[in-house]
């Protein structure tokens, strides 16, 4: 069986978001998986990236967070809480990010988890540059071979997040998280599970939501991931711009999804083979 890390970011244990987290633990455990939880509010996670993240500093007079992160990761002088979360990620075969959508993104405490844990040399600054290759990222990297899914509770109505919805399409709103924070270091990302009008969910509606979530959790190791183009698969030129002829008929971020008829990517590593399987699946929430 596999190891699953749930990174949970909600301040109220009795919230819908927390209920979904508990249901994920129950479902995964029943399947025989080992589940570990990073409950950021319960742990009073330090969200601010600053000098305290490094046990020693190479430039004490002026903080360059990138340079200090690189040095600390390479020398084993990161803050112990950061190192502990990195070990959890390396042990995990799948990662669930559990959070409410606040102001069109994740809560600050979860963004702070990413800022601090995804250190230079761990999640970015990995691999070498040469020709059209710009390091090991977007489908490659330290976290390759893992899967991830977002479990998001949303106060607004589903049509508000559709193709013509006033809030913008949910896929676009989650792009910085799914493509930028997860696919960048190599994680294959499943379509998100979203519950709309979460603050109005009644007890009578909960069983249907719970059953839908169980189905998604049960398929975390078998469902197809979002078909993001890999950076080093031959679809981008030396400036990391999508080559002519690709993405025809699509606009915005959807041009970065593998489409029917696209040339087969030359993938680096067998565990990335699923990246080119198909277009993104539309998520309708619960």
From TrEMBL:
Pfam families per record: Flavodoxin_2
Cleaved signal peptide residues: none
One MF term in the entry's GO annotations: NAD(P)H dehydrogenase (quinone) activity
Single GO cellular component term: cytosol
SUPFAM superfamilies: Flavoproteins
Keywords (A to Z) from UniProt: Oxidoreductase
InterPro entries: Flavodoxin_fold (IPR003680), Flavoprotein-like_sf (IPR029039), NAD(P)H_dehydrogenase_qn (IPR051545)
Domain Flavodoxin-like fold span(s) in chain numbering: 3-215
Family stated for the protein in its record: Belongs to the NAD(P)H dehydrogenase (quinone) family.
This protein's name: NAD(P)H dehydrogenase
Organism (species): Bradyrhizobium valentinum
Organism lineage: Bacteria, Pseudomonadati, Pseudomonadota, Alphaproteobacteria, Hyphomicrobiales
């Amino acid at each position: 069986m596999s190891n699953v890390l749930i990174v949970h970011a909600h301040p109220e244990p009795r919230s819908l978001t927390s209920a979904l987290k508990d249901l994920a633990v129950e479902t995964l455990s029943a399947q025989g998986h080992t589940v570990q939880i990073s409950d950021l509010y319960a742990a009073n996670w330090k969200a601010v990236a600053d000098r305290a993240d490094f046990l020693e500093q190479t430039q004490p007079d002026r903080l360059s967070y990138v340079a200090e992160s690189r040095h600390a990761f390479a020398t084993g002088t990161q803050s112990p809480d950061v190192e502990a979360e990195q070990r959890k990620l390396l042990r995990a075969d799948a990662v669930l990010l559990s959070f409410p959508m606040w102001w069109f993104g994740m809560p600050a405490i979860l963004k702070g988890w990413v800022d601090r844990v995804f250190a230079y040399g761990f999640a970015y600054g990995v691999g070498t540059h040469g020709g059209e290759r710009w390091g090991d990222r977007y489908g490659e990297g330290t976290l390759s071979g893992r899967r991830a899914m977002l479990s998001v509770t949303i106060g607004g109505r589903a049509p508000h997040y559709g193709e013509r919805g006033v809030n913008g399409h949910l896929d676009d709103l989650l792009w910085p998280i799914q493509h930028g924070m997860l696919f960048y270091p190599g994680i294959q990302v499943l379509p998100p599970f979203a519950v709309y009008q979460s603050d109005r969910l009644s007890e009578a509606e909960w069983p249907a939501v719970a059953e839908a979530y169980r189905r998604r959790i049960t398929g975390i190791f078998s469902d197809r991931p979002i078909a993001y183009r890999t950076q080093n698969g031959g679809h981008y030129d030396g400036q990391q711009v999508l080559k002519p002829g690709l993405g025809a008929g699509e606009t915005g971020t959807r041009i970065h999804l593998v489409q029917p008829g696209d040339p087969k990517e030359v993938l680096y590593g067998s565990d990335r083979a699923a990246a080119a399987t198909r277009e993104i699946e539309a998520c309708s929430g619960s």
